[in-house]
Predict the 3D structure of the following.
Amino acid sequence: MTLSIKSEADIEKTLGQVIYIAGTQWGDEGKGKLVDILSGHFDIVARSAGGANAGHTICVNENGESKKYVFHLLPSGILREGKMSIIGNGTVIHIPTLLEEITQLKEQGIDVRGKLLLSDKAHLLLEYHKVIDGIQEERKKGKKVGTTLRGIGPAYTDKVSRIGLRIADLLDFEHFAEKLRRNAERHMKAYGFEFDIEGEINYYKDAVEVIEGYVANTADYIHNAYREGKSILIEGAQGSQLDIDHGTYPFVTSSNTTTGGACTGLGFPPNKIENVVGIMKAYTTRVGAGPFPTELGGMEGEMLRDQGGEFGATTGRPRRCGWLDLVVAKNAIEINGITSINLTKLDVLTGMQSIKIGTSYTLDNEEIKTIPTSLTDFEAVTVNYIEMEGWTEDISKTKSFSDLPKAAQEYVKKIEELLETPVNFIGVGVHRDDMIYR
Ligand code: GDP
Ligand code: IMO
Ligand code: MG
């Protein structure tokens, strides 16, 4: 355990020139908040995967007023002046959602012109992808994934089927329209739905004028910036257990949410990423279906949901809640190469009489410390817990680790010890300032 970050001032010299922020659970760990804080110390903030299925919340105190922003496609560094935000090639971009976010920000006095770039290689998420997402979910009946219905799976499916439309295609509009027509007809036939193809084409005819100004070869941009010594923060979306390869397949999203995905999603090599900060909620939540061994039913689950405000930032769905699961955490550390942890929402555990941490599973009377690949097995495991003392003191204004109640300190130290990874950031509230550095 080497890293130590005593204050915000230590961030630059400690974390290095390029870092990745990874979700370690099932998403919504609080990535947006740390990215917003760190973006003050980095030159470039880049999204590398996913799309508007993400919902990253940032709360800022401005002139005594609390302002909340939720970003789905825009990187969470966009609030800062003098920083470049990049939406990389590994993402799937729904242009109407992006333009809506840009307009909303403008209404709040923030202009993104000159500080946003879209990769010309990123794929477009079109309206019919959303329709298909809905149909696929309906067809699954009792086995729904519980997607965000934002069209993510179908857009990535077109990408790997090599029929997808990219941002660059917009710049050759005649061909774009032709391909869109062909794809839409093919999908309408396969899934049996009606779709206003010409309406969609006309929308893009207008939108292209606005979009054009943001388009770039972002991989080139990043490499040039890197050579000039600029620092880069890569903002993960979703979480490790939603990764298409490493998550609880098929209850996952359709992209690589882990560090490998950050590299391909930007065209940036792994050996230049100096640190990976894992964002880990002090307990666990999940939206959508799929296994969740430490899930709590009853009062305790409800208490976490109420105190933590656990409702999806994208769909508003109530999040399933449960104890922290270190088998899941260990897996995230290994797959992402996590060197530092931001434990978030520790304040939410205040008032719990005792707090449990899942440390291993039992499957067929045998203790296991890894996640079974078979979903049937994963659903059949029982969790082995250690139990820690709770605390009742309000910690939301606490600024230093030593001022936390002893029991809260013990909880953090236990996690650190079991994961052999330093907890350098501890979230104690929703705002930028509500962070303990250590
Ligand atoms: P993301 O998708 O990982 O960026 O996370 P979301 O924004 O979807 O969900 C995290 C929620 O927790 C948001 O409402 C944040 O404002 C909130 N949050 C983040 N960190 C903390 C914290 O330390 N304490 C509390 N109470 N809330 C937090
Ligand atoms: P952030 O970045 C939480 C979940 C959905 C569903 C599964 C597949 O805010 O952490 P999809 O629409 O991607 O095909 O849905 O993945 N999911 C998320 N859950 N946070 C997210 O993003 C998520 N993005 C997708 O709920 O279970
Ligand atoms: Mg979220």
About this structure: Residues 27-28, 54-56, 313 surround magnesium ion (ligand 3) (CB under 6 Å). The radius of gyration is 22 Å.
